[in-house]
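Consider a protein example.
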Amino acid sequence: MISRAFTRSETYLFIILFVLVAVVSIISPRFFTARNALQILRTSAFTGILSIGFLFVLIQGGLDISFTATATVAQYLMALALVSKGNVPILVVLLIPIAVGMLLGSVNAVLIHRLKAPSIIVAIANLNIYYGVLQIISGGTWIYNFPDWFDRVGKGFVFAFVDENGATFGLSYLTLIWIAVAIVAVVVLRYTKLGRHLFALGGNIEAARRSGLSLFRLRLFAYSFLGLLAGLAGIVQALDTQTVAPNALVGREFDVVAAVVLGGANIFGGAGSVGGTLLGVLLITVITNALTLLRIPAYWHQVFIGAVVLASISVTSLRALLARRKERIIDVR
């Protein structure tokens, strides 16, 4: 039982996270506080929501890094509706980024499936197109001065606590959104046929095709779901910062990729878990938070992210190579 537990990447990741928290807490007493812990969960919401969407695409064998551009376009259109003088209904304002995200995600699925184009090429192309078009149309203009209700939701929380200075804090609404998304993802991947089919598609596309699975529908769902969550993440990020800028999310896609592959997802598809992804997100956020508290230059964060992605791809490739060699040995025997 113990040996099985320690073969899971989630277990190793949890141990690393635990040790990191312990070490940083000793170095900086400000780190190990209830306020900072809840702040880490709040800060993780944006990356966490996107990571769950990216996990779905990765599991079914795709690779899409255009989600930050999708989130930016979606939240910018929402922001325009928020500050418009037409008093757009709140429900419509919140549905705009969701609909835009799903639409752009669907475009990726169609291009990849119908044109037989490599998913990473389509993603890079659309990443640049979406950012470029938005910059041209917006002129790089930032949007702020949102309605009071938007500010209240962004700063709202449940389970109020009071710190030693008399300030009140609690579990942010943004964290609750992230938790809700994670629960939905667990249910879909573990307890539905759709989840099993996504794993089957990523594990062996030819076997999935022969078994009668609709490859296009599965891909359309995965990319549309990522688009939906990109729109939701755009809402969360705008609620958090109370500002929307055309270039605010540039580069954030690498945090998402690192979190998911850290969580044990196979970069080539067929494997991954929500639990591992959440641990990966928390590890990334804890490292960022620790660098800030310890006053370590932020560029070390970029070094870490790049090293994680490179190491994960290397390990995955090595495992695949060893598996092929094992199969050859069995065939010879």
